[in-house]
Design a protein that fits this description.
Layout lengths: L1 H6 L7 E6 L5 E7 L2 H7 L10 H9 L2 E6 L3 H15 L14 E6 L6 E4 L12 E7 L4 H4 L1 H7 L14 H4 L13 H16 L4 H17 L3 H29 L3 E9 L4 E10 L2 E11 L6 H9 L8 E4 L6 H12 L4 E4 L6 H19 L4 H9 L8 E8 L7 E8 L2 E2 L5 E4 L8 H12 L9 E5 L2 H13 L7 E5 L4 E3 L7 E2 L5 H27 L1
Parallel strand pairs: 7-10, 10-11, 12-16, 16-17
Antiparallel strand pairs: 1-2, 1-3, 4-5, 4-6, 7-8, 8-9, 12-13, 13-14, 13-15, 17-18, 18-19
Helix pairs in contact: 4-12, 9-10, 11-12, 14-17, 15-16
């Protein structure tokens, strides 16, 4: 990859970069304020911002293309459009987008109006034609697609039969299948429908034209034609009422609250969006995406709001999106109105913060589903910042002074992972000094590279815990929580706490700690006994 980069002239300008694999397939698309700096950062050794999933992306890159833009807003919008077009494997894909429906006017001599959706590859199924949308459930165009067919006398048959179908006899279709209507007259209706779907014409204006045509037909004695138009206007009134309601909602300053929680270890982000209309929560959606490359809250918001028809005036989030002002201006171009993004931490209104707290609780519950209840309970009672999915437990086993050994067992989601059990002969401590022995075990266990746990449990009280923490700090490890479990009263000690935590004997979190402690004791004792037998 370094050779490819050297051959490329990377511009010092804003724009979009397209990363390709060995087969020339686009696997990731990103934007940058400065293309050269951003792309080079992917290949900088020991870059703390490059997670393991981004490392997997980098290992697959064989070529990179650049598209320079005049400014950052253009880069934002171009990135969004290219992602929709190419759907790269490592970019954010909105799993919820099947909720959005599209309408299609087919490219047939006598076009049909169809409801269509995207497949997994982003392509629209069915015959060729022009696509309109997306429309959410509740959109008047989606709810009245059958009415639109009736209003404009659009045929519904898959094939052109030689005899008219029921739709002709109930006056929903002019039966082009039996040449009852010329193609020119049929296309006049299709073009009128097309103008409404394109937004060039409104239903109100179309209704006024229909009323004028009804009066003209009546004046010249075409009473049957005037009656058909009158029936059409009755049908049209239903659509006009729904469109007025939809416009009233659009003018109302809708709010949307979007909360995000990230699991760096798993490389995933979970999001929840709540839409509030006139003070009432009207919709809820859940999403997730991989933390790869530039995938972030900012890139999610752009993809999300460029995929739905109604963008709210106010958006509240629980973290500051990068390039917030550029993102707001990009969304304004898409929405056609001003869009403001606020971090609720900086908002005075208490109810808005409470709503975001509700989202956070729901996200926590959703994320917790994948964990054993004991793991979730332990996170709560110990007030840990992250889920203690991986736990290491240490024990010293020294029967007498002749042989001293130690053990470390690992539990993953409350299940023993015996492949990562470790046993040690104590080498640097003479005599019966449990504190120093524990410090040696912890130092030796984490001196070599490997996956670090989410929580370290020490069999013992304050003295053993202090020795273990000192060894961790000597190794430069400061961010892994470490606790001591004293066997006599099952007291849990934490560094810096004055009083131990005592949990009820029935607590599932305590039972998991006891299981890990007993397993470490069993493993260490078996090693000690084997060494004595050998002697």
């Amino acid at each position: 990859m370094t050779v490819v980069l050297k051959e490329k002239r990377m511009p010092d300008e804003p724009g979009v970069y397209l990363m390709k694999d060995g087969g020339g397939k686009i696997i990731y698309i990103g934007k940058a304020k400065n293309l050269k700096k951003r792309v080079s950062s992917y290949f900088t050794k020991h870059n703390p911002d490059i997670g393991w999933k981004t490392g997997r992306l980098v290992s697959k890159i064989e070529d990179i293309e650049f598209v320079v833009t005049d400014n950052e807003i253009e880069a934002f919008l171009l990135e969004s459009n290219l992602i929709k077009r190419y759907r790269p494997a490592f970019n954010i894909e909105l799993k919820d987008q099947q909720r959005y429906t599209y309408l299609k006017l087919t490219d047939e001599p006598f076009p049909r109006l169809l409801v269509v959706r995207r497949n997994r590859n982003g392509k629209f199924l069915g015959p060729k034609g022009k696509v309109y949308g997306p429309f959410v459930r509740g959109s008047s165009k989606f709810l009245t697609v059958g009415l639109l067919r009736k209003l404009f006398k659009i045929r519904v048959c898959n094939r052109m039969p030689k005899v008219p179908c029921l739709q002709y006899f109930i006056k929903n279709c002019d039966a082009p299948c039996i040449a009852n209507v010329t193609r020119g007259h049929y296309m006049t209706s299709v073009l009128a429908l097309q103008d409404i779907l394109d937004g060039k014409n409104s239903v109100e204006k179309f209704a006024m034209e229909m009323q004028a045509e009804m009066k003209r037909a009546s004046d010249v004695g075409e009473y049957e034609r005037a009656k058909d138009i009158r029936d059409t206007l009755y049908r049209l009134n239903n659509l006009r009422v729904k469109q007025k309601m939809e416009k009233a909602v659009n003018k109302n300053p809708d709010e949307e609250y979007i909360g995000i929680m990230k699991n760096r270890k798993k490389g995933m982000a979970q999001l929840m969006a709540l839409r509030r209309t006139r003070g009432v929560i009207s919709d809820r959606k859940k999403f997730e995406f991989e933390l790869v490359g530039d995938n972030s809250l900012s890139s999610f918001l752009l993809q999300y709001y460029s995929s739905i028809p109604l963008i709210p005036r106010f958006v509240y989030v629980n973290e500051d999106p990068e390039d917030r002002r550029v993102l707001e201006m990009s969304l304004e171009k898409i929405a056609g109105h001003k869009v403001s993004i606020f971090n609720v931490e900086h908002v005075i209104a208490k109810e808005k913060r409470q709503l975001m707290d509700l989202i956070s609780r729901n996200l926590s519950m959703y994320i917790d589903r994948g964990y054993d209840p004991a793991v979730v309970e332990l996170k709560t009672v110990l007030k840990l910042a992250s889920m203690p999915e991986v736990i290491d437990c240490f024990d010293v086993s020294n029967l007498g002074t002749s042989i001293a050994v130690g053990s470390c067992v690992r539990f993953a989601n409350n299940k023993p992972d015996k492949s990562l059990y470790r046993k040690f002969k104590v080498k640097t401590v003479a005599g019966q000094n449990d504190f120093a022995m524990m410090g040696e075990l912890v130092r030796r266990r984490y001196s070599s590279p490997g996956q670090l746990p989410d929580l370290i449990v020490i069999d013992g009280g304050r003295g053993q815990l202090a020795a273990a923490v000192a060894s961790l700090h000597a190794l430069g490890i400061h961010d892994i929580p470490c606790i001591g479990l004293a066997k006599e009263n099952e007291e849990i000690y934490s560094p810096g706490s004055h009083e131990p935590t005592i949990l009820p004997r029935s607590n599932v979190g305590l039972k998991m700690l006891q299981h890990a402690r007993d397993e470490a004791h069993r493993f260490g004792l078996a090693y000690n006994v084997n060494l004595r037998k050998l002697r």
